[in-house]
Amino acid sequence: MKIFVLLAFMLSSYSYAQSSHDHQGDTKKTDHHSGMHDGDHHGGMGGMHGGHHQLDKNTLKQFFEPLPASIIDEKKNEALIALGKKLYLDPRLSINDQISCSSCHRLDNFGVDSQPTSPGHEGKRGGRNSPTTMNAALHIAQFWDGRAKDVEEQALGPILNPIEMGMPSEAAVVSKLKKIDEYKSLFAEAFKDEKDPIQYKNIGKAIGAFERTLLTPSRFDDFLKGDQNALDESEKRGLQKFIHMGCVTCHNGVTIGGNSYRKIGLVEPYETTDMGRFEITGIETDKKVFKVPSLRNITKTAPYFHDGSVATLDEAIREMAEHQLGRKVGPGFVDDVKAFLGSLTGKGKE
Ligand code: HEC
Ligand code: HEC
User: Fold this and answer.
1) Quick one: which atom of ligand 2 is closest to the CA of 306?
2) Which residue's C-alpha comes closest to atom 12 of ligand 1?
3) N or C end of the chain: smaller count of CB under 10 Å?
């Protein structure tokens, strides 16, 4: 039932995007004298009194789900999680003892480094923006192209990546850690049943377990759970516009994204040399297909897009409307949607 409704919605919003595409000139022209036209197809519907389009519980449930309180038994896995956190923060996992996971995914900065692309141990940068590690464990897969199946598998990549942490081999990492007394006891505690607990794959298990604790419940979760006052009027308007415009066809579920792969430039072609999932699958239709990013904490994780080429959230919202939905939107739409997106920031960190 849920899937059917979503599908129907996607189809209608697709044709909606197509038809509105024809009127793009129109929309653009009317833009300057009213913030209300922008992206709001249902004229006069910009407020909270949108007739059949109210934000009722059932509508919200079709698209979103609040963050669970926890996705790992934190008590049972206490030693594993503590080890994972230590590894996550430890620059000794890199060849020159200078780069940790937290260099690019800072725990004190919403899991990002706020740079378009990130310098590794030699200062070299890859072609992609560092996505946040916050709530990432809930995604269908890891990386912009989904090439690692979960956070445990993902964590093993950067340590050996020549332009990231640059360690030469799994054996080199293991032997380095074995020389650090503290790790002997921490691994022994975390992997009680194992005779030789300092193993490469166990590093991934520990870091992954820690990443599973990186959930950031927000005011929007309170709203989904029924607290009508958790969002203010502009945020509620933004949520309505986000739904009606069709952003929600891709950015939905518990992480408001993170659960599907879609093409960048679905309606209006988007210039990029990064072929996304095509590089993994070799399937023609996977060209420029990326994992839809989660929008949790999005106001805090600029710059945006897979290459970090979009500096501001305003621009990201405008580009999305244009390239994914074939719509030109003005400041009214952008301001409200941005306000809504602000409600997705972890509470206490806003
Ligand atoms: C030099 C910077 C850098 C370092 C160091 C680094 N990462 Fe990343 N991380 C990235 C970049 C860039 C990507 C995206 C690459 C891609 O998608 O191809 C990424 C992707 C990820 C993702 C996927 C998130 C998502 O939404 O798909 C996770 C999780 C992650 N890194 C965790 C880690 C962990 C754990 C470590 C330490 C073992 C680490 N990273 C070290 C830059 C870095
Ligand atoms: C057809 C699917 C689709 C639709 C519809 C869509 N998006 Fe996206 N969105 C994506 C994909 C895919 C990306 C990643 C693009 C990239 O990095 O190249 C993305 C990226 C973003 C980003 C940047 C995230 C980041 O971490 O860099 C924001 C913000 C965003 N979308 C907001 C919106 C808004 C607002 C709307 C509605 C106006 C919207 N999206 C509509 C698929 C979609």
Assistant:
1) 17
2) 130
3) N
